[in-house]
Design a protein that fits this description.
The complex is a heterodimer of chains A (about 300) and B (about 400). In chain A, about 70% of the residues lie in helices and about 0% in strands. Chain A is an all-alpha fold and about 300 residues long. The longest helix of chain A is centred in the middle third of the chain and has 31 residues. Chain A is globular and about 55 Å long. With about 400 residues, chain B is of the alpha+beta class. In chain B, helix 4 runs antiparallel to helix 5 and helix 4 packs antiparallel against helix 11. The termini of chain B are far apart. At the A-B interface, helix 6, helix 9 and helix 12 of A face strand 1, helix 4, helix 5, helix 7 and helix 14 of B.
């Protein structure tokens, strides 16, 4: 019974979806306020989602149909499992079965891979271009994410267990307050922006260039799944950062839970502000940025971490 | 092997239907096909069935953004035909409206350019500050868009002397706004990375493609109808032509932003120099003959030609809009750039698609244009002959 509640209600399916819809609203509302607009009502993401669910699904003639169907489902599943694993690691840090950092990094990659797949099989030149950009971007941002997490692993004594990383931070203070941890956190925030396909790294969708890129051929419920996946990832990737760099969310009292949610909110707002104060860069510029600058800083952070800073 | 990336006929990049076929290898553009004519409305033919006063309203509908430049060229054309000199106060009011429109059009472009770059904050902010200008336009003309102010021999509404301090105040409000956008473009390293050295149009290509307006001035060509063939109140005010040398998107953006300062200054000078007086000559008819009119639209030179047989209607009306030449220069500017930049370069000439509509006849069987240059030339000569016979010239 507890497992069922855990998977379906809290912190699984329903809670994750509600949180994702809320973050989608925060994103749109803050964006609107930054841009001198009023912004949508609280339930707008839910309205959008339900409306898309009721629309017709069009399959392009050139598409590989089963993959075209499979990609959004795969993306949504990946995002849900990612969120579920992370919440459980925060709820029960001593539980040894909740998976480790490597699993989480792979799970976080599944939605990107699914977007790519959906783009490649839908047979439109725009979506193929978007998918090819997504592949290139993935090469860049994965490298940075792994480097940033390496700093965390080194600092917490070589453990890749999510629970152990939390334990270390609860004893010795958050990773982000050390010089190497700070550099790694900044890199991780930038890589997160790329993983979430937000400006300045939204070239795989780039509405005004390639009309939504990977998503251009999708409609109806399949598009709704992709949108929901994006919203879930936007809500949950910051939780990975809070977990690895800022001591996670401690479920011991209401104050500590609220403090944890406050940490999440900080990352959400940073994410939205970066997205609203930058133009989109080109894919080659993004790759150069991640491999050259990001790579150098990442190596520097790892060396600092090994030296104990 | 090149693939085709279609931009258009309907695309979020464009507000109007237009078709750019990008031939790409990977992300690199190797060739560009431009296809116009999705929105042909037959304005020139329509003009032949409208009276002279109505023609001004008609050409105002050619373009929604620079809705006063076509009327400006049209009344220049009619005044050239009738050798009319409009009263001084009318000339000042006309110049003020033209410059207000230039400000709103350039701000609109800055916003759209931001939108094309995914920088939606710039888009919303520049359109918010554009409201100041739209309010002034409403106060002066009664309309935020399509002002319906111009007529041969004068203007339709006088500018209320009591409004001048308020307009001056609004212009003062514009200066920090222009500073803001100038700073935003000049100080942002990410924008530099996206704009500098992208989509260069050399001065030679600019001349070969006969580009006009900011597109030409950003490539180092000093042309501006306001200086080259002064009209309205422009000979009486002091202003500079903004010229940049590089011809890339950054220069085009900076050129437009710097022109905002000039426009604000022109409006202030006009308001100061304006004296009370008549605003209209009440022209009732135009003599037979030919007339040409030019005006500097925000996008470049607008050219109108008319042939009159002395009746109430033009016998022939011809419009040449700036975007028509500017868009074709993309053929050079876009080659060798990536798809990501191509979208921006196409937009950097500030295209106004409905200005560019021309008729093409396509054979459905083999997708070839039926009426080539030679055929059109023949048609045009035949038409001129008929007209000459009818007018017994």
């Amino acid at each position: 019974m507890m497992d069922t509640i855990n998977i379906l209600i809290f912190p699984g399916l329903i809670f994750t979806i509600i949180l994702a819809l809320f973050v989608a609203w925060v994103d749109r509302k803050v964006t609107a306020r930054v841009q001198w607009r009023v912004g949508p009502p609280l339930l707008q993401p839910l309205f959008d989602f339900t409306k898309l669910m009721g629309k017709e699904t069009m399959i392009p003639g050139q598409a590989t149909a089963w993959l075209f169907y499979a990609a959004p489902i795969m993306a949504l599943t990946g995002a849900l499992v990612f969120s579920f694993t992370l919440w459980n690691a925060n709820l029960y840090p001593d539980n040894s079965m909740v998976g480790d950092l490597i699993v989480v990094v792979y799970l976080a990659m599944i939605p990107s891979v699914a977007f790519m797949l959906g783009g490649l099989v839908s047979g439109s030149p725009h979506s193929v271009l978007g998918a090819s950009r997504e592949i290139k971007l993935l090469l860049g941002d994965e490298l940075i994410i792994v480097m940033a997490l390496m700093v965390v692993i080194i600092q917490s004594g070589g453990s890749i267990k999510l629970g152990a990383i939390l334990d270390y931070q609860r004893t010795y203070g958050a990773v982000a307050w050390s010089p190497s941890g700070m550099i790694a956190l900044i890199l991780a925030i930038l890589a997160m922006q790329a993983k979430l396909a937000l400006v300045p790294f939204d070239m795989s969708e780039a509405e005004t260039e390639i009309m939504g890129g990977t998503l251009v051929a999708y409609s109806g419920p399949l598009l709704a799944f992709f949108k929901l996946t994006q919203w879930i990832m936007r809500a949950m990737l910051p939780l990975l950062l809070v977990h690895c760099f800022w001591g996670g969310i401690i479920f011991s009292s209401w104050v500590s839970i609220l403090a944890g949610l406050g940490k999440l909110l900080v990352f959400w707002v940073i994410m939205i502000l970066i997205r609203n104060t930058n133009p989109r860069v080109r894919i080659d510029q993004a790759l150069k940025f991640f491999t050259v600058w990001g790579g150098c800083l990442g190596v520097l952070a790892m060396i600092l971490a090994m030296l104990g800073y | 092997m090149s693939t085709i990336i279609p931009i258009g006929p309907y695309h979020p990049l464009q507000e109007e239907p237009e078709f750019f076929r990008l031939h790409v290898e990977g992300e690199k553009v190797v060739h560009l096909d431009i296809e116009l004519g999705y929105n042909h409305r037959g304005i020139e033919k329509l003009a032949e069935s409208k009276s002279w006063d109505q023609v001004v309203f008609l050409v105002e509908r050619i373009c929604g953004i620079c809705s006063t430049s076509h009327p400006a060229a049209a009344i220049n054309c009619m005044e050239d035909l009738g050798a009319i000199v409009a009263p001084e106060r009318a000339q000042y009011i006309r110049a003020i409206i033209c410059e207000l429109e230039r400000i709103h059009s350039h701000l609109l472009w800055v916003g759209l350019a931001g939108h094309f770059l995914g920088y939606n904050t710039v888009w919303m902010w520049s359109w918010k500050y554009r409201e100041i200008v739209c309010d002034v336009l409403e106060k002066v003309t009664g309309n935020r868009q399509s002002y319906a102010m111009f007529k041969a021999g004068g203007v339709r509404r006088d500018l209320d002397q009591d409004d001048i301090p308020w307009i001056m105040e609004s212009m003062d409000k514009m200066k920090p706004v222009v500073d803001l956008f100038r700073g935003a473009v000049m100080d942002d390293p990410v924008l530099h990375a996206r704009l500098k050295g992208v989509g260069c149009l050399s001065a030679e290509d600019a001349i070969n493609y006969a580009v006009v307006g900011p597109t030409a001035r950003a490539s180092g060509i000093r042309i501006d109808v306001r200086k080259d063939d002064p009209y309205f109140a422009y000979p009486w005010v002091d202003f500079d032509i903004v010229v940049y040398e590089e011809g890339d998107v950054y220069s085009k953006a900076m050129c437009r932003i710097d022109e905002l300062y000039q426009s604000v200054s022109i409006i202030e000078q006009c308001l100061k120099k304006m004296k009370p007086g008549p605003i209209d000559l009440n022209i009732k008819e135009l003599p037979p003959g030919e007339g040409i009119g030019r005006a500097e639209a925000p996008r470049g030179e607008v050219f109108h030609y008319t042939l009159s047989d002395g009746s109430n209607f033009p016998a022939r009306y011809k419009v040449r809009a700036p975007s028509y030449t500017n868009i074709l220069s993309n053929e050079k500017a876009v080659i060798g750039e990536t798809v990501a930049d191509a979208a921006l370069i196409l937009a950097a000439v500030d295209p106004c698609y409905c200005c560019t509509e021309r008729l093409t006849v396509i054979d459905e069987e083999n997708n070839k244009s039926v009426l080539g240059q030679a055929d059109l030339l023949k048609l045009s000569q035949a038409k001129t002959e008929t007209l000459m016979k009818r007018l017994s010239l």
